[in-house]
Amino acid sequence: MSGRIEDYALIGDTQTAALVCRDGSVDWLCLPRFDSHAVFASLLGTEDHGFWRIGPAGSGAPYADRRRYQGDSLVLESEWDTPDGSVRVIDFMPPREDHAPQLIRIVEGVSGRVQMRSALRMRFSYGRVVPWVHKVDDVRTVAVAGPDSVWLDSDAPTYGEDLTTYSDFTVGPGDRVAFCISWQASHRGAPEVPDAAAALTATTAFWREWVDHCTYHGPYREAVIRSLITLKALTYGPTGGIVAAPTTSLPEEIGGVRNWDYRYTWLRDAAITLSSLLRTGYREEAQAWREWLLRAVAGDPENLQIMYGIAGERELGETELDWLPGYEDSRPVRVGNGAAHQLQLDVYGEVTEALHLGHMTGLARNDYAQGLQLKLIRYLETHWNQPDEGIWEVRGPRRHFVHSKVMAWVAVDRTIKLIESGDADGPLERWRELRDEIHQDVCEKGYDKERNTFTQSYGSKELDASLLLIPQMGFLPPDDKRVIGTIEAIQRELSTPDGFILRYPTAGEEAGVDGLEGDEGAFLACSFWMADDLAMIGRVDEARHLFEKLLGLRNDLGLLAEEWDPRLQRQVGNFPQAFSHVPLIDTALRLTASGAYGG
Q: What pTM did the predictor assign?
């Protein structure tokens, strides 16, 4: 059985990532890319769907007594204390340049003499295909099926039993036993045998040097650094595309149907990630994302998709893997994402805001980027007043979502500023009138005067946490009574008993506004937005308290999933989630700037 979502650690090489449980089991790994088929998929099924556990031998699979990352890195250390002594396992994936994708595991003896076991069960195609496994020589084993091969190199002897590759060995103080798997296209020759010690040195140096570029040195530096490392790990190095999460189908409700594939690049998530990277000193990553964006939408910017593949792919067809029972029986398991072709007008605003921020912070001038921004506004001129599926990708009927209209206003506003700066040409007066028209439309049709709050969509009574972005985007000032009324209404109606924020009301057993059955947890990004808004309206102590409660939801390694289940008191949703770590960074920066933090 899989561990709780917060029991997992992330390791990665900026092209794919693995999740390692507290019991020393790698339960999720897609090779060679984030969106490739999984080699280990027991996270969404059973051990029959692939895993790799290294830990003390004996019955059961005990959790490590301690674990941590080596400093500011993605090198994981897990330690077990046994009656015979203590042992450490170091897990990491060397950032790739020209070598094959690798996952390296080094076992170190700490004290006494501890018997250890490595159990490796490779299953290709998300646990469906049992590969042909055979020894090549005394130290190399290869698993082959179709286009894929995975090579195992081991310092300790291995043997096969029950379609699993085992190694039994003992370590004492100072002993080191290394294991490595490497992916290679099956038609190619064997990959080089890795030097585990050299790879560890290079990997720690890579992360140390990368973290040195961070310009944030405030009171929440530890949380900010861990979030930035996570965002870097979710960035596909060759293209600059940023995945929303490295997993698919971790449920928003345990046992429910709200299970989606997040191994793609949402323009919205990536745009706000760019903002956080620029504000913390990571201009190179921001530049790479802008270049990815320009390639992804090249030739057809009017038909902007809400998400793309990590190399800019457009077709992300959604299918269900019926041989996987799902995480804690949460079915279905989905790969691909059917929301890719939805109309979500807010994306135009997020992309334009990201391009605007890049321009304002001095990213190298790119005429095509400015041309793209102008084309997006020309599209919005005739489409902003249409209903859409909105920020939350509802699978019910389209509506006139207030947040979508606000972000259309943002797109026009930022483009006007670009023209006013003299760096672009456009119909300034016409677009100023358009900006005013959108603003008036939202304030007349999206505002409930009786309750003094904006609503989820025109004519509705429901609230929506995306309304918290109204002051953050500059649509209205924080001290506007309508803004304060909206914040307080969301606190009253969308708060969980422990003070975290739901996205919107869900319908339980019947389909609600999102067209889905079931409920979900508190959405962590929305809870960070609430902390931001509270700080903006002067309730800074309340903002700091909420922020620090949110920090307390992170697992022991500083990682967050998409949501928090207040009933089960556990993380839910895909993990780790960029859309949770980005607002953590933003709120930390806001509270630091305001001086609203504890001593």
A: 0.96
* Coil, helix or strand at residue 185: strand
Three-class SS of residue 578? Answer: helix
**Confidence class for position 582, pLDDT limits 50, 70, 90:** very high
Which residues is 447 bridged to in the sheet?
Answer: 454
Contacts of 553 (CB under 8 A, 6+ apart): 524, 560, 564, 571
User: Rounded to an integer, what distance in angstroms lies between the CA atom of residue 8 and that of residue 54?
Assistant: 15
Backbone angles phi, psi at 28, to 5 degrees: -150, 125
Concatenating the DSSP letter of every residue in 361-376 gives TTPPP-HHHHHHHHHH
SS (H, E, C) 28-55: EEECCCCCCCEEECHHHCCHHHCEEEEE
- What value does the mean pLDDT take over residues 260-287? 90
- pLDDT by residue (tens digit) across 320-334? 999 999 999 999 999
Pinpoint the alpha helices (H) of 135-282.
Answer: 196-211, 221-233, 267-279
Nearest alpha carbon to residue 263 among 278, 250, 282, 277: 250
pLDDT of 596 higher than 80: no
Q: Which of 572, 578, 544 has its CA nearest to residue 228?
A: 578
Q: Which amino acid is present at 494?
A: L
- Whether 594 shows a pLDDT value over 50: the answer reads yes
Q: Measure the CA–CA gap between 248 and 260, rounded to whole angstroms.
A: 6
Q: Residue 8 has which token pair?
A: 């997992």
SS3 314: coil
Query: In the structure, what pLDDT confidence band is assigned to residue 3 with cuts at 50, 70 and 90?
Result: confident
DSSP state of 77: E
Beta bridge partners of 144: 132, 149
Q: What is the dihedral of CA 294, 300, 301, 303, to 10 degrees?
A: -130
Q: Are 575 and 5 in contact (CB under 8 A)?
A: yes
d(CA 242, CA 276): 13
